[in-house]
Amino acid sequence: MQIQWYPGHMTRARRMMAENLKLIDVIVELADARAPRATRNPDFDDLFEGKARALILNKCDLANPAVTAEWIQWYREHGINALTVTATESGGKKKAIALLESAAKPTVEKYRQKGINKTVRVMVTGIPNVGKSTLINKLAGTATAQTGDKPGVTRGKQWVKINSYLELMDTPGMLWPKFDDNATALHLAYIGSIKDEIIDREKLAVNLIEELRRICPAELSARYKKLDIEAEGEALLLGICKSRGFILQGGKYDTERGANAVLDDFRSGKIAKVTLERPNRETTDD
Ligand code: G4P
After folding, report:
1. Which of 28, 42, 213, 275 could link 64 by a cystine bridge, Cβ 3.0 to 4.6 Å?
2. 58 Cα to the center of ligand 1, angstroms
3. Ligand 1 pocket: which of 134, 150, 194 to mutate (most atoms within 8 A of CB)
4. Are 279 and 76 contacting, i.e. CB atoms less than 8 angstroms apart?
5. d(CA 122, CA 162)
């Protein structure tokens, strides 16, 4: 399945981002722990050149913890300041602040060593749906950031005081994913970072089932009891419908409902805690 995707408002959002960047000391980039490669854009290295950076893998509740640990190890080996979080976890303002302090620590220490005693300003960035607004709201303690991405939304910049030396920009920095290979596009679509309206959900669901049977066949079979996971193509989706009893009047399987069920189950972690990509490898299926 080929995904055609045209990122609207990209130039405008990038310009806004560049303007905001002048005010920022530390960039905290959020990525999705289920697809740590696809949810980061290789162009960010250029965009953020010269800025102190930290990477936070969010949605760890949905990812395979062993693979998350592999990623963190890999980042450490490659000199990347990387941390993990589940931004939706209950409570957690204190924890979120500790996370931000930890992300900013190398920069704060660098300033202190130089005898500079300034407020360090932080911006949370990332592609759509990685949890930027959720994390900012937790840090700010109010519904400050707008949930859901509205590229180019203009609003006054506000700074949220985190502690005596840290301030957070209350508006997340919007970035776009980049994909020149289809596997990346598919991973972004599975996790919901590309809007569903532009995608054939039934084809997407078949691709997802194929990927899941490679990564977690036992869990897939456990979730969909009568599914023959060796089946090919659309037969997989029919198997899901059979397993769930999604049958239309007249006896036809309701493949639209089947596709929605698989995508929703995957996105809410009901099939398994799945990480689609591992470090040092393009995708889990190569
Ligand atoms: P964004 O600003 O980066 O675009 O992301 P946002 O905070 O709006 O979060 C996107 C969705 O992801 C939200 O779900 C949010 O609750 C969920 N989310 C954020 N962090 C976590 C996490 O650590 N774990 C889990 N399981 N979910 C998380 P939503 O409101 O249901 O929106 P949608 O998914 O229906 O678009």
Report:
1. 275
2. 10
3. 134
4. no
5. 10
pLDDT averaged per 10 residues, the chain (length 286): 58 75 91 96 84 93 97 93 91 82 89 90 92 91 51 62 90 82 91 81 96 96 93 94 94 96 96 95 48
The residue count for the chain: 286
Res 195: pLDDT = 74
- 276 is written with which tokens? 């689609």
CA of 88 from ligand 1 middle (Å) equals: 8
Question: What's the gap in Å between 217 CA and the centre of ligand 1?
Answer: 26
Rounded distance, CA 116 to CA 123, Å? 20
Domain boundaries, the chain: 8-170, 200-267
By CB atoms closer than 10 A (0-12, 13-18, 19+), residue 164 is exposed
Fold of the 8-170 domain: Rossmann fold (3.40.50)
Determine contact, residues 54/104, Cβ cutoff 8 Å: yes
DSSP for 178-200, written as a single string: --SSHHHHHHHHHHT-S-GGGS-
Joined together, the tokens standing for residue 142 give 């109010």
Measured by CA distance, the residue closest to atom 12 of ligand 1 is 131
Rounded to an integer, what distance in angstroms lies between the CA atom of residue 180 and that of residue 278? Answer: 18
In 3D, which of 89, 84, 104 has the Cα closest to residue 32?
Answer: 84
